[in-house]
Amino acid sequence: MNERYINAALVCLAFAVVVMSAGCTGVMAPVGGGTRISDNNLTHQQWYSQHDENPDKYMHNPENPFEWTLKGMASVAWGGNHEGALEYYDTAIGLDLEFGFVYYEKGFSLLNLKRYDEAKECFQKAIELNPDFKPLVEKDLRTYVRD
To answer: What is the pLDDT along the chain (147 residues), one digit of tens a residue?
Structure first.
């Protein structure tokens, strides 16, 4: 089977697993505590729609931060490679400093790596960009950080 299709399928599957495990009912962003996380940025909404319409074509646009975020999530879902995921997230952040979802995902990987101060910084940025992330961040911090 063509490696390109396998990679695209794996990334899509990983994204679905991560989002569904967070309780998401849509592609936009994860859900925590029954609160849907929406993104009012029209560019970000377009990314989500394009991904829904044609995931394979969408996954080969290296200038799209959502693509890099999905690759990071796939890295985590397939093998728990949080360290490797950070490189994908940093690439996404470099492409769009206003994409709150990638800051949340990077913070989640940093939590798993027990790099708590860095995780909190990423989470703060995600909340700053989109306050809907606050309940999910608070839940993750309660779950992962034991003082």
So the answer is: 455 444 444 444 444 444 433 433 333 443 334 445 677 778 777 777 776 777 666 566 788 898 899 899 989 988 899 999 999 999 999 999 999 999 999 999 999 999 999 999 999 999 999 999 999 999 999 998 875
pTM of the model: 0.70
Q: Looking at domain 3-144, which of 1.10.240.10, 3.30.565.10, 2.60.40.420, 1.25.40.10 is its CATH number?
A: 1.25.40.10
Of 93, 115, 101, 91, residue with least CA distance to 51: 101
Under 8 Å between Cβ of 58 and 76: no
Report yes or no: 93 and 103 within 8 Å, Cβ to Cβ. yes
Cα separations in angstroms, 77 against 7, 65, 121: 13, 18, 23
Distance, first Cα to last Cα, the chain:
48
